[in-house]
Amino acid sequence: MAFTFLKRTRYFHTISPAGIALQSRIDKRSYAARSSVLERVVSAFRAVTGDDGVSLGATVREQHGKDESVHSCRPPDVVVWPQSVEEVSALAKICHHHRLPIIPFGTGTGLEGGVGAMKGGVCFSLRKMDHVLDLHQEDFDVTVEPGVTRKALNSYLRDTGLWFPVDPGADASLCGMAATSASGTNAVRYGTMRENVLNLEVVLADGTIFHTAGRGRRPRKTSAGYNLTNLFVGSEGTLGILTKATLRLYGIPEAVVSAVCSFPTIQAAVDSTVQILQAGIPIARIEFLDDVMIDACNRYNALSYPVAPTLFLEFHGSERSLEEQVTITEDITRENGGSDFSWARDVETRERLWKARHDAWYAALALRPGCKAYATDVCVPISRLPQILVETKEDLTKNCLTGPIAGHVGDGNFHCLMVLDPNDPHEEQRVHQFTDRLARRALALDGTCTGEHGVGLGKRLLLREEVGPLAMEVMQGLKATLDPKNLMNPGKVL
Amino acid sequence: MAFTFLKRTRYFHTISPAGIALQSRIDKRSYAARSSVLERVVSAFRAVTGDDGVSLGATVREQHGKDESVHSCRPPDVVVWPQSVEEVSALAKICHHHRLPIIPFGTGTGLEGGVGAMKGGVCFSLRKMDHVLDLHQEDFDVTVEPGVTRKALNSYLRDTGLWFPVDPGADASLCGMAATSASGTNAVRYGTMRENVLNLEVVLADGTIFHTAGRGRRPRKTSAGYNLTNLFVGSEGTLGILTKATLRLYGIPEAVVSAVCSFPTIQAAVDSTVQILQAGIPIARIEFLDDVMIDACNRYNALSYPVAPTLFLEFHGSERSLEEQVTITEDITRENGGSDFSWARDVETRERLWKARHDAWYAALALRPGCKAYATDVCVPISRLPQILVETKEDLTKNCLTGPIAGHVGDGNFHCLMVLDPNDPHEEQRVHQFTDRLARRALALDGTCTGEHGVGLGKRLLLREEVGPLAMEVMQGLKATLDPKNLMNPGKVL
């Protein structure tokens, strides 16, 4: 009894006032009645996960109410840590019965506010479900639980000769990456999560467990029924909780060569990119950094790259094929006025060479100590890149904003790493207006408001502009079908 | 007036008795009342498309009630030929108002009975919408109307240095290929329709027109909202009519080399395939033909390939990279007991070499003159291929069935080209039972009942076994949301 009392005490302490305040948005009953509901819910959660699997602590809730974006923290009322799909399903059923929002949580490395508990509710942290299951080396596939991160999988695969190449930078969970349709530097060669997820285990808001391509199925291709896998890839937790992902793997390339090359103009860098792709070079990475970004990287890492539009390139293949890839690429860049290649073969030199690109985020932050950073994310057809990059740089200058540019230029995808003073609401407002203008510029050039970060909280209006009201209605219809009570990550995407 | 009378006469003549019989399934009213409805509908159609755009002719209807499968002809009541998306929408609205089924029709080259008018209704032939629109060479994309076929697009692209590589064999319409999630020989390198459609214009059953990724959008990647594009790819006309597709294009490879190699066992051929993929060879095609298929090809084309499990290979790349690809591949096949390569560089020799593979269908048919053929279609993880191929060949022998095997072995996808006597119902029954056993064998090995032909009519029960009742419920929910009156190609997929 004493134990129960303690739990109750902790409970009332920790959910008040934030928890109760949030909860009140979905529950208009009296304080006592609401408290009683929450108490019953938490007891039910504990019966599923054990005491360790539930937390009402303010700090824990705060940690789970925010990702790496500038969106403010919206803590959930409760955080739960299920350890199996059956526990996820049982917890979802409790939420469903009480109409409590469910917010899936991977590593919190998202960039569009996808984990904020906009209507309170229950954060499902999937961190404890972290097993790599069913590796099939000969078939180049593996199944992972939702707590397995990209780096953890690649560590696991180290001695197999295989790897999973999708690399958004952060060490995100693979199911989280599926949820946001993540991609990153290697997408130009290996595709995004859309192309690399073969099957998903999903728990719907009502606790139903199903497999998008059927339990245990992992053919390389299929025409069997609607493509449910790719409906859930990119659904940002708004349709269901991803509890397993079956992924494509690739052979680790025999050799890797990296190169850096600077250009007189943005146009010359983009022209080179188009010509490299046209020549059929199976380039693994082709990253663009603008002059401001290179300057920041030079300062941060004490490097001395020319302060000019720059391409960072990486080639994967056999020793012999790399030689040819590099030669043709160098010819192309030289014809476009590019500098001689700085290039690197061994791991150490390659890492030094790419350090500028890898540290871009921190280099940007170091431009203005004490500031925070926010990465925009648009994607346009490659031919439109010079126009949008030039206009965007003019916009930044005109509005006195700090936003060095880095991009996965082979896909037409780029980011402005906005550095802003967290204590200056005017600057925040100007950044917000700038990012909206940037997104609309991308839309005007046949592009998208998000190439890889997702819609989350911040781009819901832009999504409507992008796809139009009728496609929005279709999306809303799908959402209503799969989550009629609007419990799955409410307030996101749509 | 005479003209109207003539039209009426033709109308009553041609829809009776088949048309009326079919129509009666969805309309229980009296003959006179039904005729009157049909008459009004046809007048409304003519007002949209002109007289040329509507046909009630028995022959025309029969031509549109059947694909290349063994499923019997189920002619629609009417065939319409819209010439623009606005006409498609206007015709759909009429159908919607009168609750008439809508069956989209491309080239009729499907293999699972997808175009049969199971409940009568209106066939939308999209043949007259055959323009290639908006080619963007620098961005490697193009938009096509639904009547544009694969070969027509590649002819159009001839002088651009670009091509569209997805090749299911038949000269299918590209939107039809999108509708069935088609793939074929090049998928191992270039992916299937799932990976190569960037955007679709869709008309829903109620006439709503929308674009799955937003009007005119064509970024290489996007995370903006639910992936509606890939919900419609593979939907087999059951969710909406595809009226435009934006497709990825690829640079035509500098050089192409083909090779043929025979093996002592199926296992040796499959092991070679796995090792070629593991070695990172970017093989463009890797096709398996079993001994029976090779024997048939030898007879049909007066060739003299060893009657043994055989791989047909194709390499795309630069001259120099091809040399390396071929050398490594030859090493791998030799280590697995493969014969020396027969290989070919110039177009003519290559075509001669591949003729055996290209004519496989006709070679199979020639095994039993006067018979018809039916291609099964399953896909399993590659490591499971030897087991399923051996078991399937034993099954064929035991049941005295003719079914030479050809497969896209790099994807784990293969077909038995069943040759059967159209006048022998017992044999037809045995073939049916065999194909069910084959599909269940694929399911037992983590595979799918269809790798590229789709579910259509024949595999609906198998789909349920493959994905399970809960995923089926999700699919049915999506269907009900987008097509609540069940007018879009009813009786297919679900």
UniProtKB/TrEMBL annotation, chains A, B:
Q: What catalytic activity is recorded? A: (R)-lactate + 2 Fe(III)-[cytochrome c] = 2 Fe(II)-[cytochrome c] + pyruvate + 2 H(+)
Cite the entry's keywords alphabetically: Acetylation, FAD, Flavoprotein, Mitochondrion, Oxidoreductase, Transit peptide
**Cellular component aspect of the GO annotation:** mitochondrion
Q: Does the keyword Secreted apply?
A: no
Write down the EC number. 1.1.2.4
The cross-references to SUPFAM superfamilies, in alphabetical order and at most eight, read: FAD-binding/transporter-associated domain-like (SSF56176), FAD-linked oxidases, C-terminal domain (SSF55103)
| Domain of life where this protein originates | Eukaryota
> Required co-factor?
FAD
Any one biological process term the GO annotation gives: lactate catabolic process
Task: Report the locations given in the UniProt record.
Answer: Mitochondrion
Question: Domain FAD-binding PCMH-type, which positions?
Answer: 71-252
UniProt cross-references to InterPro entries, sorted A to Z? FAD-bd_oxidored_4_C, FAD-bd_PCMH, FAD-bd_PCMH-like_sf, FAD-bd_PCMH_sub2, FAD-linked_Oxase-like_C, Oxid_FAD_bind_N, Vanillyl_alc_oxidase_C-sub2
The membrane-spanning stretches of this chain are: none
User: Per UniProt, what is one Pfam family of this protein?
Assistant: FAD_binding_4
Report the function annotation for this chain: Involved in D-lactate, but not L-lactate catabolic process.
Return the PANTHER family for the record.
D-LACTATE DEHYDROGENASE, D-LACTATE DEHYDROGENASE, MITOCHONDRIAL-RELATED
Family statement: Belongs to the FAD-binding oxidoreductase/transferase type 4 family.
UniProt subunit comment: Interacts with CSRP3.
Q: What is this protein called?
A: Probable D-lactate dehydrogenase, mitochondrial
Protein's organism:
Albula glossodonta (roundjaw bonefish)
Query: What's the source species' lineage?
Result: Eukaryota, Metazoa, Chordata, Craniata, Vertebrata
